[in-house]
UniProtKB/TrEMBL annotation:
Xref: PANTHER family: GLUCONATE OPERON TRANSCRIPTIONAL REPRESSOR, TRANSCRIPTIONAL REGULATOR, GNTR FAMILY
The entry's keywords: DNA-binding, Transcription, Transcription regulation
Gene3D superfamilies reported for this sequence: GntR ligand-binding domain-like (1.20.120.530), Winged helix-like DNA-binding domain superfamily/Winged helix DNA-binding domain (1.10.10.10)
Superkingdom, taxonomy of origin: Bacteria
InterPro entries for this protein: GntR_C, TF_FadR/GntR_C, Tscrpt_reg_HTH_GntR, WH-like_DNA-bd_sf, WH_DNA-bd_sf
Name this protein carries in UniProt: GntR family transcriptional regulator
Alphabetical list of Pfam families matching this protein: FCD, GntR
Domain HTH gntR-type: 22-89
Segment forming the signal sequence: none
GO terms assigned for molecular function: DNA binding; DNA-binding transcription factor activity
């Protein structure tokens, strides 16, 4: 990441700087979400502006904006004269996150089965090939990107843009690199996604929905086990 700089006075250039600052804020927010949802940042811990900025190699401004975003998502709260603190994360919270995403994703999966084209399924197969290579080469960021691209392509095929948008925002609560760093999960994801495209070609909505549900069931089990292991709720 690059350190942000003050926007120049020229109006013609300022929008580019503003977009970059917003992107940087989004990256910081994603980093903090991952730390919170994976248990690295625990409930009751304070997130210091200067320390976080220094560790990420950014200025304080995108960190402040990222924390404002996380306040709106209920992940942190601002305590007067003390700073931002991570709010409690219960088992029910984690279960609710997965329930919400699974419910939306299954509806989109059923719609995709009816509307997706053969060319779009071919593209999904190419993305699975990229996922398989990334898993084999132990490239977690590429694994996470390939999975994201797969589901974005699948969801866009439904034509249900608003519902796909809701799923995208709900998915921000999950820590993708937590899964992408696990080779066993990666191999399972490759097999699951190949089964999904095979079912899509058959227009087998029941199987596509079942496989989609299995993704979230497995994801919830793994994350809950991780949080139990580190004693988040002990």
């Amino acid at each position: 990441m690059e350190t942000t700089v003050n926007a120049p006075a020229t109006p013609r250039v300022a929008p580019t700087r503003r977009v970059r600052r917003e992107q940087l804020s989004d990256e910081v927010a994603a980093h903090l979400r991952y730390a919170i949802m994976s248990g690295s940042l625990r409930p009751g811990m304070f997130i210091r502006l200067d320390e976080t900025a220094a560790s990420l190699g950014v200025s304080i401004t995108p960190v402040r904006e990222a924390l404002r975003t996380l306040r709106g998502e209920g992940m942190v709260q601002l305590e007067p004269h003390r700073g931002h603190v991570v709010v409690p994360l219960s088992r029910a919270d984690v279960e609710d996150i997965f329930w919400l995403q699974s419910t939306i994703a299954k509806e989109l999966a059923a719609s995709a089965t009816a509307r997706i084209t053969d060319a779009q399924i071919d593209e999904l197969d190419r993305l699975i090939d990229a996922l398989e290579v990334a898993v084999a080469e132990r490239e977690p960021e590429l694994v996470a990107q390939a999975v994201f691209d797969f589901h974005r392509t699948l969801n866009r095929s439904t034509g249900r843009i608003k519902l796909a948008w809701f799923l995208l925002h709900a998915a921000r609560n999950l820590p993708p690199l937590f899964y992408a760093n696990d080779p066993q999960w990666g191999e399972r994801a490759v097999a699951n996604h190949r089964a999904v495209t095979a079912a899509l070609r058959r227009r087998d909505a029941e199987t596509v929905v079942r496989l989609t549900d299995a993704q979230f069931t497995d994801g919830a089990r793994r994350l809950m086990a991780r949080l139990e292991e580190i004693g988040l709720w002990s």
